[in-house]
Amino acid sequence: MGNAASSFTMKIGSGLGTAALGWILAAGNFDAAPEGAAAAAALDGYPMTKKGRAHEALVEAATPSFWGGILGVLALMFLAPPLAKFAFNFGPQERFMMAIFGLTIIASLSAKNILKGLMMGALGLLLACIGMDPVLGKARFAFGSTFMAGGINMIPAVIGLFSLSQVFTTLKNPISRADGKGFGKITSSGISLKDLCRYPIGYIRSSVVGIIIGIIPGTGGDVSSYLAYQMGKMMSKHPEEYGNGSREGVGCCQAASSSCTGGTLIPTLTLGVPGNATAAVLLSGLTIHGLTPGYALFTSNQSTTYPFILALFIATFLTLFVGLAGAKYFAKVTLIPKEILSGAVLMLSVMGSYAIRSKPQDVIVMIAFGVVGYILKCYKYDVVPIVLGLILGPIAEQGLSQMLILNKNSLNASLLSLFGRPICIALMVLSAASIIYPLWTNRKEAKKAKEIQEVEED
């Protein structure tokens, strides 16, 4: 797809070409394929759907995406040079601590059974070790397979853990038509002005997280969604609703994921450092037209740059329109009979896994993760920590490896270097709060439940 996009831009000229790339990039940001960012939103989106609030969940997925996209593009227009300079403050230490902070979300997601959550997080970290060593360049756990030497691709793994495992879970029960009792209530609900900005503080906070994470190459929407979700839960007036169908939780994930696009483009356009594969496609398109990333893109070549940014703006508005107008109809998927829906999901899962790299091995990976996910769900294990481990494991490992190299393989010196960097200290505080807060909340709820039980007994 990247080659096709680049060839297309070469034929239609630089101005329209970069605008077309803007549309392609915006469309990729709202891709329906299951990935880490979508999995974060599903933490509350799926419980909302089970409660008959599918329409509400889809509306909340559309509006924060709009605001996050707008703020991300505004950051790209006005804050690109200073934010790109700020990104240089993120060295190996900051990357390592950012990954650690992300992993502390496991404590929040698995507050009811932290041991199980830690086990699944450790499994995800172990699976993330499969592939090439980032420092030595040697294959690990590949067992002589060149495919395994390339590591586990994230998207087939996520499709297997969430989509395919759900198909197995659905087919385990007797085939019956989906329950639509709560759906009639959904279809009659309208969209009010409040729906367009229901949680403004949460949207802004999550968008800022997405922009900052986006300007750090190698992170992206997956990391920003989970971090924004955790921060939203810590600062919410109703944290107990998170994971049980919180509309605010869906909004935090979507705002961060969308704003991350603008953040990703900042180092791409100012420094020539693509933040992800999609940004690399954009960079190749600029190179085709003889454009060099840097300050000149926003001055002497502004006739090329600003049509691209304008295309992002227009695509963001269109996404909002399609999301709101179609939410009522998209929600009707809950009325499809289980046997048809499961077959469709299975077919799309196979097609999506194969289409990524056109490798049948990715389909095998998807099926393997689907079976594992199904077994874990049967024994009440949460699969989300596995995804967190897969996403954040390589970032933490690379940061730690670079720290050790910089400190001559001294672990003590590497750990001490964390305390001399303000950003690392801030991330340490957030990590500690992320671990302590769910434990304190659980203890408080247990104490309250005990008091209520004593009153009832009296």
Structural notes for this entry:
With 458 residues, the protein is mainly α. It is built from 21 helices and two strands. It has helices spanning 2-12, 14-29, 36-50, 54-78, 80-87, 92-103, 105-109, 114-128, 146-149, 154-172, 183-187, 200-214, 221-235, 247-271, 277-288, 302-330, 338-357, 360-378, 384-406, 411-417, 422-457; strands at residues 131-132, 139-140. Strands 1-2 form a two-stranded antiparallel ribbon. Helix 4 crosses helix 12, helix 4 runs antiparallel to helix 16 (302-330) and helix 6 (92-103) runs antiparallel to helix 19. The N and C termini lie far apart (69 Å).
User: What number is the mean pLDDT?
Assistant: 75
Radius of gyration computed on alpha carbons: 23 Å
Strand elements, count: 2
Judging from the principal axes of the Cα atoms, what is the shape?
A: globular
What are the segments in which pLDDT stays under 50 over at least 5 consecutive residues? 1-34, 175-188
Structural domain tally: 1
**SS strand fraction:** under 5%
Structural class of the helices, strands and pairings?
mainly alpha
Major sheet: size, sense and barrel closure?
Answer: 2 strands, antiparallel
Order of H and E elements: HHHHHHHHEEHHHHHHHHHHHHH
Distance between the termini: 69 Å
Please give the share of residues in helix: over 70%
Biggest sheet: strand arrangement: 1-2
Number of helices: 21
